[in-house]
Design a protein that fits this description.
The chain has 148 residues and is of the alpha+beta class. It has 8 helices and 2 strands. It has a two-stranded antiparallel sheet.
């Protein structure tokens, strides 16, 4: 939410994109947080600086309660949509049957999501964004003038 507010709406620096994150328990515990932002080459450094500011803000303060509530509502809506899909059920049933995931957690995930607090997000941000596992890549398409 903050990324879109700051980088797209206020700065007008990206065409699209956003953050995504995943955490997996199996086959080994790991996580990934990534952002992909389409922009002109003149905006790359400004965007990276703003992203670093937003990460620091999240580590220092966590999200606003309003943004956390929006994110929770989005998660709950996505789950309601997924419950209508066979591949979602198949995936969850496999996790429960073969990997020992909690059946109760799956059935009551709404309660788990509702309990997430600003402090939880702040603590998670400090754990994930510790500076130890960063990778930055910038794709710059070849410009016709550069070929000459």
């Amino acid at each position: 939410i903050r990324l879109l507010e700051e980088v797209r709406e206020k700065m007008g620096a990206i065409y699209g994109g956003g953050y995504s994150a995943s955490m997996e328990r199996d086959p080994y515990p790991h996580y990934a947080v990534q952002t992909q932002l389409q922009c002109g080459p003149e905006n790359v450094d400004k965007i990276i600086a703003k992203l670093n500011d937003l990460v620091k803000e999240m580590k220092d303060n966590g999200p606003s309660q309003e943004n956390l509530d929006k994110a929770k509502a989005s998660i709950q809506e996505k789950r309601r949509e997924n419950l209508k899909k066979n591949n979602y059920w198949m995936s969850k049933l496999q996790q429960i049957q073969f990997w020992g995931y909690s059946q109760d957690r799956f059935l009551n995930i709404e309660n788990v999501v509702d309990k997430i607090s600003v402090a939880d997000i702040k603590a998670t941000a400090n754990k994930l964004f510790d500076g130890k596992n960063e990778f930055l890549a910038t794709m710059k398409p070849e410009v016709e003038e550069e070929k000459k």
